[in-house]
Amino acid sequence: MSTPRQVPDVRRRLPPEERRRQLVAVGLQELSNRPIHALSIDRVAEIAGISRGLLFRYFPTKQDFYVAVVGAASRRMLRAATPDPDDPDPLRACLNAFVSFVDRHSDNYQAFFHGGFGADPQIREIHDEVRNTMVGRILTATSAAPNPLTTMRLRGWWSMVESLAVDRTAAPDTSVDDVVDYSITVLRAVVLDDPGVTSPGSGS
What we know:
Elements: H1 16-31, H2 41-48, H3 52-58, H4 62-80, H5 90-104, H6 106-114, H7 121-142, H8 148-168, H9 176-191
């Protein structure tokens, strides 16, 4: 039996920025139970204790609200994928956190960035920011030289990592660790030109 939803004193008057944060937090909470295309503005307003019309004072359109929620979800993902500075293997920690996040939120992740919402310029900008942040972290974790060629290769490699993470959710025989291991092998053998690593599929 589920416990009643605990909503803090939502009907009190809040400053605009605090109300916006509250509405986005409610949107994120709702996404834990339903995909973004099923996110109901009326339900968000009801949980927040305000009218639908008042919600649209803070977010002029439903798409504006969705963009704000996607941005907050992306920031949450980036926080989750921040390796502990004392971790002995920050590269693996970073990748494992990202792939695990996609594993837990696959439907919404695909809807955010690869479904209809992904066509929105603001959503694409958020997606690019996620990729650029993760590429920067990989550069730091590998101590690779941040030259244009390496950065370009890493951006292409990251697209592969993202695709593998999403596709893995439909391949139960492939684990999160499998995706992480393969991604690291490709990174070192192909992107970083590590002579001590055998290229994937070389058979040697």
